[in-house]
Amino acid sequence: MDLNTLGRIILLFGIALAVVGGLLMVFGRVPVLKHLGHLPGDIRVEREGFSCFFPLVSMLIISILLSLALNIILRLLNR
To answer: How far is CA 56 from CA 15, 27, 38, 65, 68, in A?
Structure first.
């Protein structure tokens, strides 16, 4: 692999990271998304000197939304 190819790969990763960071900043301001992680069904165990958090329902909702978005995008690209 030559340096030109390596430079392009690093540049693409940097752009992707900046886009993801920007999306996270925008999504942090959406009031509906602030409830993720605090939904009924999210498991939280807190004891003295120990805490464990497993956002089961939040992960299911995010998975369903991402699957729908990916299916819509792939169907639009295959036309």
So the answer is: 31, 20, 10, 15, 19
Please indicate, yes or no, whether residues 72 and 54 belong to a single structural domain of this protein: yes
Model confidence band, residue 69 (pLDDT cutoffs 50, 70, 90) = very high
Which pTM does this prediction carry? Answer: 0.59
Is the Cα dihedral 24, 73, 36, 33 positive or negative?
A: positive
* Host domain of residue 54: 36-79
In three-state secondary structure terms, 54 is strand
**pLDDT number for residue 39:** 85
Residue 36 makes CB contacts below 8 A (sequence gap 6+) with 55, 58, 61, 62
Q: Do 23 and 41 share a domain, yes or no?
A: no
